[in-house]
Amino acid sequence: MNGLIEEPWSEDDFAGLAESCDLECKAAQGRDGRGELPEDFWKSYSAMANTNGGVILLGVQEKPRGQFRPLGLTDVERVRKALWDNLHNRKQISLNLLSEADIQPIYVAGKTILQVRVPRAARQQRPVHLGGNPFGGTWLRRFEGDYPADDEAVRRMLAERVEDSRDERVLKGFDFGDLDMDTVAAYRNRFAAVKQGHVWTDLPVPEFLERIGAWGKNREEGYSGLRLAGLLMFGRAEVIRDALPHYMVDFQERPEAKTEKRWIDRLVPDGSWSGNLYDFFRRVYQKLTADLKVPFQLQDGQRVEDTPVHEALREALANTLIHADYSGRVSVLVVKRPDMYGFRNPGRMRIPPEIAIHGGNSDCRNRRLQTMFQLVGYGDHAGSGLPKIYTNWAGQHWRRPVLHELPEPEQTLMELRMSSLVPPQAVAELTKLLGDRFAALPETARLALITAQVEGLVSHDRLKQICTDHPADLTKMLRGLVQNGFLVPDGAGRGMVYFLPWQRRSAATVFDLADQAGSAAGSDVVPPELAGVPPELVAIPPELVVVPPELGAPASAPVGPYLDWSALPDALQTQLIEQGRMVSGQGRVAPIVLRETILALCTNRLLGLRVLAQALQRDSDDLRKRTLTPMVKEGALRTAYPSMTDPRQAYTASANFAENKE
Description:
By secondary structure, the protein is of the alpha+beta class. The protein has a six-stranded mixed sheet with strand order 12-11-15-16-18-17, with helices on both faces. Helix 10 (277-289) runs antiparallel to helix 11 (308-322), helix 11 (308-322) packs antiparallel against helix 13 (367-375) and helix 11 runs antiparallel to helix 14. InterPro entries: RecG_C_sf, Schlafen_AlbA_2_dom, Schlafen_AlbA_2_dom_sf.
């Protein structure tokens, strides 16, 4: 992609880029039409740098969403010079991440546009912000839009930047009385078994805890105490929450291979056990491996009660705990299903997932915790844990693990599926439903449909993980499957996902609603042991909910959601066009007219952004930012999902409005 592209780009080239990376297009024409660096370029630059990186194309108009029109830059060098000048102006932007290779002109249909490739900023560089103040000047990328980061997010980035290890801190006011001594004893027994004859084995408890890093001294201020790592590892849950109010660990065993509310076994800090990380690890590891079949093997005359799957699950569980950002609002969640294991931790990875998977690079968030787990034989050496998980899973000929991040609230998820890349049952089901049409498809196309059948959906990113085709070829292949009715798209750009026509889109994967879990947890959640109710009566976590959690399941639930205009019945299209005529047939309209029209359209219906934009003939981004979001905040509209930028988002008129209209 770098360098001057001589051949004109096609629509597929743009679509392929949009699905393989975060893409922002700006007309950048300026007042004289010769080209000018737009002011909002820097918001996109900051947002991409602080999130996953991306590409900004100057001289391209994207309107409507997914439709690209090259306008070109008559004076491309003027735009490039303005860009370089401002990159070195600290009053404009805090940090230059770009090199010459990142800013290149490309030819599209005889026009010259400027491609700017923005890398993901390293932890030590974030936040990248406009002006001199990160508070108010930091932007984040959320589903193809640039949004200002709130103060909490900025503080978290600043802490990540200055604290190489987040669990290093020595706590004031916490002492040995805050620890669960049964957990400490269990850890010492394990340490003695793993490291027989070690000089630390017989040390008194205070000295032992100091040696392993659970107790330390703040040498700048001259006081000693528990480190945050020691409190997390050995403390009592209610005391841990004094230091980390959002601390929560959760294990669920679900009975069926589908997203659902039911669980048959659950472990949360409910007062019946300590609730700390070491106890959680020991108990959950036993539950994860309870049903694994162990082949009979002898080593030095002793039976080996271990397999590569045991090792992979140990690594996944340890990684989840040592890389978690315990200041975040999302819980640590571990799920066991008959077909898969799922692991979630608050916080994004400190290095990009694609780099971490290959190993050799490590930037552990909680290094003291990592050391304490390693001392008792859990967790591999730095940078080798993830490769070992992938290698061991591949050795079973199972589907490649899924590792991905969700931006809001920040969290990292890993799914380990116990099914082959091409499960015979999935092939048989697709053959039954699609007949000879399935067998006639090329191999990669069949693999895409099999992935959608097994995993609940398929995406461009997922296909890049499991096959070697060029990203542009994957885009064309997916588009062909949509045109021929094999897949149904949802979302746009990098957020685009594809479903089989008969699939329920609200039940994609075990963690497909995990972003709602964190958003719903935006308010402080009372831990179950403090709420005076047993854990089975605590509210079901939102990631298990099939019906959108914000809507509940009232008797008069709105119909829908309708997310794609092309998928609407003709009669409904006609009805929506007629209801939207007061706006769609006009240029500018009074805000009150636009709002009333939207409420009429959304009465007793769930309508997605693209459907509303089509019915009203309005730009979707402008409609969401200027009208829909304020209406939601005022209570006039209700949303299907907490995150306003969720690709599945849909809107319905509030009950009060519906009653008033009647």
